[in-house]
Amino acid sequence: xxxxxxxxxxxxxxxxxxxxxxxxxxxxxxxxxxxxxxxxxxxxxxxxxxxxxxxxxxxxxxxxxxxxxxxxxxxxxxxxxxxxxxxxxxxxxxxxxxxxxxxxxxxxxxxxxxxxxxxxxxxxxxxxxxxxxxxxxxxxxxxxxxxxxxxxxxxxxxxxxxxxxxxxxxxxxxxxxxxxxxxxxxxxxxxxxxxxxxxxxxxxxxxxxxxxxxxxxxxxxxxxxxxxxxxxxxxxxxxxxxxxxxxxxxxxxxxxxxxxxxxxxxxxxxxxxxxxxxxxxxxxxxxxxxxxxxxx
Length: 296
What we know:
alpha+beta; Aminopeptidase; 2 domains; 7-stranded mixed beta sheet; 7 helices; disordered N terminus
């Protein structure tokens, strides 16, 4: 047993970018840190990360910490170029793990991961015991919880319908970037949808998961992307019926309280999210995040 007050003496401790040759060792580390995840969860996610269009000069997979060439820590970084209004670089920090004997040096890994001043960093899955640590690292909360909506209970607006995205279809008003966004997330296994409205077509991306209510598992979806939360509210009835036909009864939305116009309930037991940087994320944009690339 190693006493945290008397840490081991590191041998040539260093942090560097993860390369493809490191992925096997990184999977081993992550399985130690997150024993509830199978190896296939990580290997599939890394295969998707390998194919992403990462901004030039930024790590593709993340950072690894070594002591004498032995991997002892890891943090994943999912970088992408956000095209909302003003183009900017965003990074989802994910899956931070350091072996117990080297925990006193864990701050070195996170400080290097956070060194870029031109990046907006997000942490979208912090465990409640880590909230004070995340805040001490300079992160600010941008979502206090989640609203659980039951969209099939809402009326469908006239002239609104929903279809699954097809790369072969023509859509009125979807940009090339939005078509690529929908295609990429469909390839990840997400549900990429297009809502046809009298004012033009609107993009939506959901990922499925389930929550336990007693002995019953409730099939749900998480909203990963829409142009604006007002679009979801405008199309909620049609989206709800489309999802209900696929067995999905509830949708989780990032929120700071109840959402007017939607039936459901708000909870702060899950869903707290943080950011650090000059550009706070908006609700309804978790594109290319860990929830899309790795899954729930």
